[in-house]
């Protein structure tokens, strides 16, 4: 069953086409990685999915509803079921780890403080960072910040997770930790994920299906094995790190 579907999506900025007829389906509990050169519209696509950007033309279905035509209240309902891990984790510097993770719970759910504390502790356990509730973001390493950002994103227990360059700036050990957490969320909670990334090693480890954006369209979609066997020059250049095309 498709949880997310883009139908003939078009988007331009200042007359420059970013999306020129995007068609893509994402199934329940599937991890789909979006790859492509810088400026190919990967991050724009996930912003359209949660209604932060509106396509010039086309439809974006989430849970069977076209986000493009939803009112702001209905878009908020979609966002309540969607978590997002930002590239820089985007923690509030002035708030403790506890308050950072509690923030979306207070914004979206009516929970008692005891329930919030239990939810925060549970999500910290899930990302392997028990007992750091009182720490401030300035006391955390880059890898810890990413994991706290992920704990905050899953605090509302979303059905969809969006990841914007989740391994950027991380060492190999922390990259592996994030990869394992993405797989854990799919396997244990059935979360559907879209991952915007340039990290092809992570793509190989976590992805059920890859979608490559090129020239405003989905040039190719398929498994890692299918991408490795592609006879498209653009795909081969990207997979091998040949930057001439990009």
Structure in words:
The protein is of the alpha/beta class and about 250 residues long. About 40% of the residues lie in helices and about 25% in strands. The chain has 9 helices and 10 strands. α6 links the parallel β7 and β8 (about 190-195).
Which structural traits does this protein have?
246 residues, alpha/beta, 4-stranded antiparallel beta sheet, 10 strands, 26% strand
| SSE sequence, one letter per element | EEEHEEHEHHHEHEHEEHH
Shape: globular
Unreliable parts = none
Strand content: 25-35%
Radius of gyration: 18 Å
- In order across it, which strands form the biggest sheet? 6-7-8-3-9-10
What about the largest sheet? 6 strands, mixed
Q: Kindly name the structural category.
A: alpha/beta
Compute the number of strand runs. 10
The helix count comes to 9
- Give the integer mean of the pLDDT values: 91
Distance N to C terminus: 34 Å
Helix content: 25-40%
Quick structural summary:
The chain has 246 residues and is of the alpha/beta class.
Task: Show the helix and strand layout.
Layout: E1 2-13, E2 16-27, E3 31-35, H1 42-49, E4 57-62, E5 65-66, H2 72-80, E6 82-85, H3 97-108, H4 113-126, H5 142-154, E7 160-164, H6 172-189, E8 192-196, H7 200-206, E9 209-214, E10 217-222, H8 224-228, H9 233-240
Helix pairs in contact: 3-4, 3-5, 4-5
């Amino acid at each position: 069953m498709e949880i997310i579907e883009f139908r003939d999506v078009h988007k331009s900025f200042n007359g420059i086409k970013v999306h020129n007829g995007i068609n893509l389906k994402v199934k329940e509990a599937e991890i789909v990685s979006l790859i492509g050169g810088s400026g190919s519209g990967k991050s724009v696509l996930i912003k359209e999915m949660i209604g932060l950007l509106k396509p010039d033309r086309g439809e974006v279905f989430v849970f069977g509803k076209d986000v493009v035509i939803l009112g702001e209240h209905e878009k908020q309902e979609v966002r309540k079921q969607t978590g997002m891990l930002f590239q820089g984790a985007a923690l509030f510097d002035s708030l403790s780890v506890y308050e950072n993770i509690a923030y979306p719970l207070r914004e979206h759910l009516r929970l008692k403080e005891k329930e919030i504390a239990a939810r925060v502790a549970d999500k910290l356990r899930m990302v392997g960072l028990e007992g750091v509730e009182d720490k401030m973001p300035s006391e955390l390493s880059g890898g810890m910040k990413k994991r706290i950002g992920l704990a905050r994103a899953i605090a509302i227990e979303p059905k969809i997770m969006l990841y914007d360059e989740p391994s950027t700036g991380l060492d190999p050990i922390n990259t592996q930790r994030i990869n394992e957490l993405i797989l854990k969320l799919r396997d244990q909670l059935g979360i559907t994920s879209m991952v915007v990334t340039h990290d092809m090693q992570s793509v190989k480890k976590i992805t059920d299906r890859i979608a490559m954006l090129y020239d405003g369209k989905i040039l190719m979609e398929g498994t890692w094995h299918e991408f490795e066997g592609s006879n498209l020059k653009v795909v081969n250049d990207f997979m091998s790190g040949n930057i001439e095309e990009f």
